[in-house]
Structures are given as C-alpha cells and as structure tokens.
Design a protein that fits this description.
Order of helices and strands: EHEHEHEHEHHEHEHEHEHEHEHEH
Distance between the termini: 28 Å
Number of strands: 12
Bound molecules: (2R)-2,3-dihydroxypropanoic acid
Structural class: alpha/beta
Radius of gyration: 21 Å
CATH topology of the largest domain: Rossmann fold
Helix content: 25-40%
Strand order of the largest sheet: 8-7-6-9-10-11-12
C-alpha cells in the first residue's frame, strides 16, 4: 500500500506524475488559500505533507496527523513550520535549497534597477501619455555603477547577488554571522563589514537573511535613519525582516530614497501607505517565479517527500 500524503495545492503536472508513482496523493485546493481548519481536516491519517510557504504548519497541524513522518516544504525558507515541535516529535522537515538561488538573485537585481532608475514609475508616465519629449531632468534616478552595495545575509542568494554586482564594479560590503574565507571574499569581490557600518555606507542595501527571532524587524526606524537619504532598500527575503510601518514613514519623509519589496510583513496584506507611494516598487513574492525554478522547487520537495516515506534519507533535511 502506498503511503498517504497531502499536497496542499495543485503543483505542476509533471510533479504529480512523479508523486503518483510512489504515493497516494490527496491534493488540496488550487487558486485560493487553504484555510487552517481545512488543512487540519485533510492532514489526518497522512504520513506526509507537501506544504507551500503560505501554509502554516504549526503544532496543531502536526498533532492532527499522528502518523505524520515528513513535512516537505516547497521553499528554501521554512519559517512557516514549527521546527521545534517537529524535531521533538521526530517528524522530518525538508526544504528546497540551491534550486532558486540564481532566479532570486536575478529578481533582486531587477528590483534594484527598477527602484534606482524608477522604471515602473517611468513606464506608467509613458503609458499615461505624459511623455512630451526629452528633458534633461526627466525621471532622474540613482546611479548603480561603482556605488556601494550592502548585502545583509551572505548565503547562497547573497553571494549570487554579489557576483552580479561585479558587472557594475560596485564596492560590495556584506554582513553575516559567518564570515567568508579570504578566498571566497576575493571570489565574490565582497568585504566583510559590521552591520551598522553597512547601513551608513550602502547606496543599495539588499536583505537576504532567513527569518528568525533575531532578524525579525532587523530594519526598523533606527536602522532606516542610519541609512543615506539617497539609499535604496531591497527585500526579497521575508517580509517581517523589515518594519513595514517604519519603512512607509521613511519613504514618505525622504529618510531613504526608495525601496523595492517582494515580500511583506503580513503577506498577502500590504501596509496601505506603501500602496500610495511612488518611490517603492511592490512585487507579489515572485523571487523564484520562473517556470524552470518553480518546477525544480516542486520536484525537489516531491523527491524529499518520497525519500522520507520510502526509507531513504531525504536529501534536504533542515
Ligand atoms: C523561498 O523558497 O523561500 C522563496 O521565498 C520562494 O519564492
């Protein structure tokens, strides 16, 4: 008999073909949220759960499924899972590292350039028929080349962002609890600097930390005030790393110049003041959203799930 699993949303067809070979799959809803109460119902009697980052896999969910052996998250981040409880109960938890690094670094750069060069604002202006000819001071933005890039969190994605910065001959500073070796610093052309120093020196500050108690609201009013008034802040990590209310205020008052966000503190809700501001570019959490990468993420989660339920060690245990 195949082990029973719950896949909380319809995934790409090839992933279901693979899963069906090994598992008895119940698929949750698609195109809408899976309410927590429904998740609690559906997970009962299941040995495995393939979750998305929007599924709150808390203690209650794991308690509802006494036979649960593995939660395979389809994301590199796993802050949506109560890891402490899972560990206590011996439930395996896996993620999808590696496969989304380049795609997320690309999106980071798309956001940096979009904010610095005011691309969405300029596009709206053009579409609205406001372009009446070249002007010396039309839509002036911030320069990127040879400026200072500050990277907070120098994991896979932070490093991939640093590599791309070399094309712009940037002075890259990074902060991470784990300092890179001199060889790595040379390879990524990035110098270690204390967090506060990066805040005050960066022309572009980009966040690539995981969400932990320590990084919750890492960027608040005080940190924003420490930044240059010409600085751009970009967040493609997790929304709660930035105090959205403080950011809205900083953008309104010109404490920093602009921001680009792909993630939000209370996702999918967005601080309403941000929606009214022209100096922030807002994206709907699409950091890893290329067809190839999303397929790789889902396939990685599926392989982890199958491994965990067929007596093998899943490749991406967290
Ligand atoms: C992740 O995997 O954590 C990303 O946020 C998905 O886009």
């Amino acid at each position: 008999m195949k082990p029973k699993v719950l896949v909380t949303r319809q995934l790409l067809p090839e992933v279901h073909v693979f899963l069906d070979r090994f598992l008895e799959v119940e698929t949750g809803v698609t195109g809408r949220d899976l309410p927590h109460a429904e998740l609690l119902q559906k997970v009962k009697e299941k040995a495995g759960l393939l979750s998305l980052l929007v599924d709150d896999v808390d203690q209650e969910v794991m308690e509802a499924a006494p036979g649960l052996k593995i939660v395979a998250n389809c994301a590199v981040g796993y802050n949506n899972i109560d890891i402490t409880y899972a560990r206590r109960k011996g439930i395996l938890v896996t993620n999808t590292p590696g496969v989304l690094t380049e795609t997320t670094a690309d999106l980071t750069w798309a956001l940096i350039l979009a904010v610095a060069r005011r691309i969405p604002e300029a596009e709206r202006f053009t579409r609205e028929g406001k372009f009446s000819g070249w002007e010396l001071d039309l839509m002036l933005g911030q320069e990127i080349t040879e400026k200072c890039l500050g990277i907070i969190g120098m994991g896979r994605i932070g490093k991939a962002v640093a590599l791309r910065a070399q094309a712009f001959r940037m002075n890259t500073l990074y902060f991470d609890h784990h300092r890179l070796s001199p060889e790595e610093e040379k390879h990524y052309a990035a110098a270690y600097a204390p967090f506060l120093q990066i805040l005050s020196q960066a022309d572009i500050l980009t966040l690539h930390t995981t969400l932990t108690e320590e990084t919750q609201r890492l960027i608040g009013r005080k940190e924003l005030e420490a930044m240059k008034t010409s600085a751009v802040l970009v967040n493609v990590s997790r929304g709660p790393v930035v105090d959205e209310n403080a950011l809205a205020e900083a953008l309104e008052k010109g404490i920093i110049w602009g921001a680009g966000l792909d993630v939000y503190e209370r996702e999918p809700a967005i601080e309403s003041r941000l929606l009214d501001l022209g100096n922030v570019v807002l994206l709907p959490h699409i950091g890893s959203a290329s067809y190839d990468t999303r397929l790789k993420m889902a396939m990685t989660a599926a392989h982890n799930l199958v491994a965990g339920l067929t007596g093998k060690t899943p490749p991406n245990l967290v």
